[in-house]
Specification:
This protein is mainly α. Helix content is about 75%, strand content about 0%. It holds the Pfam family DUF308.
Length: about 190
């Protein structure tokens, strides 16, 4: 019989936990970045849209190169078409960042609304297995989707930046919480 000791700070990958000061520094830096992002959510929304566009263009280029490189694998035409689609999508995002931010925000609102309804249904069907957590999560998803969609198009200019800022702050809080775990105080 094999037993596993989970008390070691080494974790599953056998890498040591980062030192306390690194965790604190990373947490504070992420929180600061989050507050800076929240300082001008419209600018960050535009920058995010342009960044997503360039990443899409680059990914499309690699997809087309990959199609020619691996011609014998099959699906050549589909890979080229997918690459063209990525490049076209990216060109629209880069060329029209305001309109693209509106489109991305509208799609985000729809996704949140639909996924919220699905989570509510899952929460109800799995009520005995702590389904209330899924139900609550779904309710927040539906509420967020409705806030985005009912305030559209004005929400399209600030929602993406707000979400990025909140995500950075919560990620920073997560690193700070990790830093103060008893097993990470090894430095």
């Amino acid at each position: 019989m094999t037993t596993i000791d989970n008390s070691s700070p080494m974790g599953v990958t056998n890498l040591p936990a980062p030192p306390f000061w690194i965790c604190v520094l990373l947490g504070l830096a992420l929180m600061l970045a989050g507050f800076l992002v929240l300082g001008d959510v419209m600018l960050v929304t535009m920058i995010s849209t342009i960044f997503i566009g360039w990443v899409s263009i680059i990914a499309g280029g690699f997809e087309i190169i990959h199609a020619f490189w691996t011609k014998g694998w099959g699906g050549f035409v589909w890979q080229v078409l997918l690459g063209i689609l990525y490049i076209s999508f990216g060109a629209v995002l880069v060329g029209q960042p305001v309109a693209s931010a509106l489109i991305l925000t509208y799609v985000l609102g729809l996704v949140l609304l639909i996924s919220g309804f699905v989570r509510i249904l899952l929460g109800i069907s799995h009520w005995r297995e702590a389904g209330w957590i899924m139900l609550l999560s779904g309710a927040f998803g539906v509420l967020a989707g409705l806030v985005i969609l009912t305030g559209f198009p004005m929400t399209g200019l600030w929602v993406l930046g707000l979400l990025l800022g909140v995500d950075l702050i919560s990620h920073g809080i997560g690193w700070l919480a990790y830093a103060w775990q008893p097993t990470t105080r090894s430095a």
